[in-house]
Specification:
The structure holds two protein chains of two kinds.
Chain A lengths: L2 H24 L20 E10 L5 E3 L13 H11 L3 H21 L10 E10 L12 E8 L2
Antiparallel strand pairs in A: 1-2, 1-3, 3-4
Helix pairs in contact in A: 2-3
Chain B lengths: L1 H13 L4 H19 L19 H6 L6 H20 L3 H17 L12 H11 L9 H8 L15 H25 L8 H8 L13 H7 L1 H17 L2 H4 L1 H21 L5 H5 L7 H11 L5 E6 L4 H13 L5 E5 L4 H7 L5 H6 L2 E5 L5 E5 L1 H8 L9 H5 L3 H14 L11 H10 L4
Parallel strand pairs in B: 1-2
Antiparallel strand pairs in B: 1-3, 3-4
Helix pairs in contact in B: 2-4, 4-5, 5-6, 6-8, 7-16, 8-11, 9-10, 11-13
Classes of the chains: A alpha+beta, B mainly alpha.
Chain lengths: 154, 440
């Protein structure tokens, strides 16, 4: 191993350690470096709220898009958090409708590709839903409350 | 003090290690990543509006956008091809560089859409380390080709080059685990462990809010028992915080490495988040050269095979170099008929020097002491029994008609060898052989 190569390798090793240490100490994230904060908050409340998409069929029936196959490549963690960030930002309502239009188009694309068996949609609605956590998870499909946030139509 | 620290640093990263362990890690890491990513389609990220684009640091500072879907489609095809090439070790170095560069973009892309998830950062780091490494020196098609062409007749010696990439992944993994433990203590203190926090988390994860559904509903069972949930929380934080000990203590390694893997499996089973890619990086914790040595010691020995070849012929020495690399079970012994003939003739009086210099010969000695000699195609077929990579071919080699064709092909190759196929040292001998009618 030449001294030049060893120096380069040492610099790479140092960058890994220094980059990681910086994010850990400063509690920041610079992907792919991170302080890995997942699940680090303490959970005390028996209730929680979450943003959830609902599809509306031609007969007016609503059903939750609570499986990843309806919203791929998003998932049930990333999409609600993205929509929340959009809503909390400037011009949130208008921007979230643009995002929902993307989600509706994606749903229909996936449906046409037979990647899911969901019904054709006439509208896509975003609700903020709230649950009181049940010890047996018996109310997963029956949130305590839901508040309308936005709707888009094709 | 500083000199001691430098010495420790050098010993940790650059103590000579076998090339085969790093090579096996490369095969398994890129191979499993290729299989995992085969059905993943990143191109859809190129179809979303800019309102959903919230770039993470790397994409922000480099100003790299989400490319249009067709461009991403091409990039992912190239990436998957580079993963496969990296796994089999063909054009290994460029393939690994492409795998790292495109992989960093493609795996990083989803994190620009609202949430940074953490299951693939280690994959990016591992790919980067391998791209800079000499992981293709063993267990690769490149190494076999180099051996066949006479460029790398000897097996690579132990070297620090084969240690640091593995240690790099270890350290990256330890930093990730430790950072996760520190985050919990920083943001929640001991309450994260000694409250009903984990019980609530386990229940909440059942409500379709994760990137992956929990594979079981066992989380609800654990959550019912406060002691179990707190015990699990204590175990999780302990594994995370103490994981760096695995870097410096062999005993700690035996406990913490499997415990970390079990924790990731537990998260997948009870909570949902998909750490499968992270788990793939566990191949770097296994000392594959030692595993192979243990297999060699404990595998049924069967018949021994002594390969007798003409060491003055470049084609023969190239073939032997390839066989030595494929002989992971250590069942082949090789000997040069020219330099070792006196000993060979004494041990195996039924061998004939002229035959040995004409065709590859394999002396098969069975446990009862009986010996037989296989020649040419039959010699190769005999060796296939003890070379695991050739096992899938064995049924084919015994199919009716195949041996006849194989013998003809062998004879054709042996009789059409030109001087170009011989090493420089064997050039003259080969020419002589050609004049005499050809040999393998």
């Amino acid at each position: 191993m030449s001294s030049l190569r060893r120096t380069i390798v040492n610099l790479v090793l140092g960058a890994l350690i220094a980059g990681s240490a910086y994010d850990i100490v400063s509690d920041q994230e610079h992907w792919p470096f991170s302080q890995y904060p997942m699940f680090s908050g303490v959970w005390r409340s028996p209730t929680f709220t979450w943003l959830r998409l609902f599809g509306v069929t031609a007969d007016g029936r609503e059903f939750p898009l609570d499986a990843n196959r309806f919203i791929e490549p998003f998932d049930q963690s990333r999409l609600p958090k993205a929509l929340r960030r959009i809503l909390d930002g400037p011009d949130g309502q208008a921007r979230v409708r643009t995002a929902l239009a993307d989600c509706l188009a994606r749903y229909e694309d996936l449906r046409r590709q037979k990647r899911h068996d969901g019904a054709p949609l006439t509208a896509l609605r975003l609700y903020e839903v709230e649950w009181t956590i049940d010890p047996d998870g018996a109310n997963i499909d029956r949130p305590d409350r839901r508040a309308f946030v936005a709707e888009v139509r094709p | 003090m500083i000199r001691r620290a430098i010495g420790w640093w050098d010993a940790f990263w650059f103590t000579p290690a076998p090339a085969s362990t790093l090579g096996a890690c490369r095969v398994l890491f890129f191979g499993s990543l290729f299989l995992w990513q085969w059905h993943h389609d990143f191109s859809a990220w190129g179809r979303f509006s800019s309102v959903l684009w919230m770039p993470v640091w790397l994409f922000d500072v480099t100003n790299i956008p989400a490319f249009p879907a067709p461009v991403i489609g091409v990039m992912q095809s190239l990436w998957k091809a580079s993963l496969l090439l990296s796994a089999i070790g063909l054009f290994t170095r460029p393939a690994m560089v492409v795998a790292f560069v495109l992989g960093t973009y493609l795996m990083g892309l989803p994190h620009n859409f609202g949430q940074t998830q953490h299951f693939d950062t280690l994959v990016v780091f591992a790919s980067g380390a391998l791209a800079l490494s000499r992981a293709g020196d063993a267990c690769s098609a490149d190494a076999l080709i180099a051996a066949a062409r006479g460029r790398a007749i000897d097996l690579p010696r132990d070297d620090g080059e084969y240690r640091w990439p593995i240690r790099f992944v270890w350290v990256a993994m330890a930093l990730i685990f430790c950072a996760a433990g520190l985050s919990k203590l920083r943001h929640s203190g001991l309450e994260w462990i000694f409250s009903d926090n984990l019980a609530w988390l386990l229940r909440r994860q059942q409500y379709h809010i994760s990137d992956g559904e929990p594979l079981t509903r066992w989380g609800l069972l654990v959550a019912r028992h406060s002691v179990a949930a707190r015990g699990l929380a204590l175990a999780s934080v302990s594994i995370e915080l103490f994981y760096p000990l695995a870097l410096v203590s062999r005993r700690a390694r035996y406990v913490l490495a499997p415990a970390g893997l079990a924790m990731l499996l537990g998260i997948r089973l009870l909570m949902g988040p998909t750490f499968e890619q992270f788990m793939m990086c566990y191949v770097f914790w296994i000392p594959w050269a030692s595993v192979a040595a243990a297999v060699r010691r404990h595998a049924p020995s069967g018949a021994n095979r002594l390969v007798v070849f003409d060491g003055s012929c470049g084609l023969c020495t190239g073939t032997i170099a390839v066989l030595r690399r494929l002989d992971v079970l250590g069942r082949l012994r090789v000997t040069d008929a020219r330099t070792d003939w006196i000993r060979l003739a004494a041990a195996y009086p039924f061998l004939n020097l002229e035959a040995c210099l004409t065709d590859m010969q394999v002396v098969v000695t069975r446990k009862n002491g009986a010996s037989s000699v296989e020649t040419g195609f039959d010699a190769y077929r005999s060796m296939a029994w003890v070379v695991p990579l050739a096992w899938p071919l064995l049924p084919l080699l015994y199919m009716p008609g195949v041996p006849a064709v194989g013998r003809r092909v062998y004879r054709f190759v042996a009789s059409h060898r030109s001087a170009d196929t011989c090493g420089i040292t064997g050039l003259q001998d080969c020419r002589i052989a050609e004049r005499e009618g050809g040999r393998a």
